[in-house]
Amino acid sequence: MHVTLREPRMTVAHVIHSLGAGGAEAVLVELARVAPSAGIRLIVIGLSEPESGAGGHRSVVPRLRELGAIVYEMHSARYNPVPALTLARLFRAERVDIVHTHLKHADVIGGVAARLAGVPSVSTLHVIDIPASALQRLRVRAAVLARRWLSSTVIAVSNAQREWYSGYAGPDAPVTLLPNGVSAPEPTRDRATVRAELGVADDTVLGLCLSLMRPEKGHADLVEAMRRLPGDTSVVVAMAGDGPLLNRIDSMVASDPELQRRCRVLGFRRDSLDLLAAADFVVQPSLEDALPTALISALAYGRPIVATRVGGIAEIVAPQCGQLVEAGHPAALSGAIVEMAATIRDRSAVADAMRQAARERYHTRFSSDIWIENLRALYGRTMTPRRIAMVEFPPSGGLFQFSLQLGEALARSGSDVELITGPAPELSSREKGCRVRSLLPTWHPAAGSDTHRLWRRARRGLRAGRLVAAWMVLVVHLVRARPDVVMWSEWRFALDGWAVHLVRRVLPNAILALVAHEPRPLVEQPGQPEFYKNSSATSRGLATAHADLDVAFVLGEQAKKALTETWPIAAPVHVIPHGDESIFCSETIVAADTTGPVALSFGTITKYKGFDTLCDAWPKVRAQVPDAELVIAGAVSADVDEAALRTRVDDLAGVTLRAGYVPVADVASYFSRARCVVLPYKRSSQSGVAHLALTFSRPVVATHVGDIPNVVRDGQSGILVAPDDADGLAGAVIRLLTDAELAAQLGNTGNQALTASASWDHVAAQLLRGLDDLRSS
């Protein structure tokens, strides 16, 4: 399936150093394949002659023209400034809307030409350039600064690459995470024919390394890993790719009869898709790598992967799609190859699950349709930056932290973001394009939680007045600012609903959006038996707000179901992930197996979070683990009797209650000391604490409610139990407190999965796709 043309045609000029047979050139071929479906008229300009060994019959020019791209070859010397003038004239003559540059030479020449022509430009990073000397470091820094000065935004193809770039360019440098995509594979020859050509028997497991043979790609480590295989391992690895190390790798294999039996050095091949179809798994031994396209193609084919944990590889290879090992360790690579071969040969159910997971990951993250839609949207935002107003009444707490991190990611993608909140926000923005504006006369969520109950009751009227004033200030500010998008994360009161309706009236052309963390407003006051508010006034007011929405976002399918079943919402509802909580990680994360038997229950202490069940379970834990400790940390909500809670906790051995809001600076100390995190919720759509735990590589014991099972995967990143099941909760906590190795394994797996699938840039990209769908509909 391809995206359909929904917007006016756009002309994009891609400028690259040369049009040989490298990875960046292959990306342009993929782009030429899908650009017409997105209404993109593609012009490709090669500045210089291809390097020796990559020219002639190995040029991508014929393929680009065959796919409909307009190709210009300039044959100029490297870093010759004169072609910039020629390019600028060409951009004007071709009526280019935006310039897209690739690699250092083109970034400079193409970026200058775009400036001369008055056309916006973007640049894609294709490598993570690790300098080996002071001179190389100077060159890298110069190239980074040139990109930052000449480009409206820089595209990083992986989160690791984005962090590398920001380290040189500064944290406020515009950078957008946008992974490359590939088209669905279409092999031309059958598997048996290709394997017969390679001399690989049907009962032999075939691995494939599809990569240019350069030092950073680690082919020497792969050869050494194959040398170390046990004699009875029935596996062959084929290495396809050109490059400066081809002759060396070929000689290493040719000099050893055992390697000749186990390895096939193929050199440059045009039939890489046929090779992938014939292979049983793919291996990538890189020492450094940004986002190898060969691994994305492996996902598309449903091929399990053995690779090194460097650069953006971990963002391609989720834990269920293959195995990752440390780079530069041939022994570890050899062991992983042996294990993968055994899985493919002897454990068909496990191998089938890996193949299915690989295909699903391709379709949800790396398909060419997703890539070209995101790229087209980025071009549009670069030409006309979108102004987004995010409204967060409380200036601290989980929702504020979520909004700030999302706002920063939206700013990195090219949007102009304003986070409107209350007094003295607990965090400031780290991104130039995201501003925190303290305009609203609201309050911090935990402010006054330690005061007497009678005063709490009396101040409700005062806070109601402050909320009315906050909405008045907000509406006036929005009328003056005229943002393109107004986005909220929570509505709790009837007043919120009627005020949103007023915003709809005064800003008829703005997109009104909601990120619904909890689709139904929770009870926050004592004496109410239900978990969710059910007053008729609140229901009528919030129904009006939901009817006025243009788009809504939720953090899981269960939340989507609750939102659409509860409110009269006609707007599209998109599911987006919750990002990680790296904003709290200022120091190196301590491994879970280095702690004592400490369990942590973190976050606001409220009725629906099941602290009564946790207190019922804890004596059973202490009976099995006498030195176990439980730390309960968080502000006490108004619906919980704090005196009764303290009395209950005082009767439990090994329990410490730290009542009160935990400042951001103190969060890491709580998680670093814990071996596991406990979330015994009775009801909930999702939990930011679960993401916080996995960010710190801590396994989670949680209840099977809402969308929590999508984050805490039973047996992978934690243990799930039924709500209100004290015995089951105790058993799960005991298991993790008595098995430090298991706790570390589950925590690390959860952290890897979170990093691979839920970076904030990925969250922002999905949210922007939802907004772009509105603009183009």
From TrEMBL:
Q: Is Glycosyltransferase there in the keyword field?
A: yes
Q: Source organism's superkingdom?
A: Bacteria
Q: Which Pfam families match?
A: Glyco_trans_1_4 (PF13692), Glyco_transf_4 (PF13439)
Question: GO MF terms on file?
Answer: glycosyltransferase activity
Keywords noted in UniProt: Glycosyltransferase, Transferase
Q: In the UniProt record, does the keyword Nucleotide-binding occur?
A: no
The cross-references to InterPro entries, in alphabetical order and at most eight, read:
Glyco_trans_4-like_N
Ranges where the Glycosyltransferase subfamily 4-like N-terminal domain occurs: 22-182
Please give the name of this protein.
Glycosyltransferase subfamily 4-like N-terminal domain-containing protein
Organism of origin is Mycolicibacterium psychrotolerans
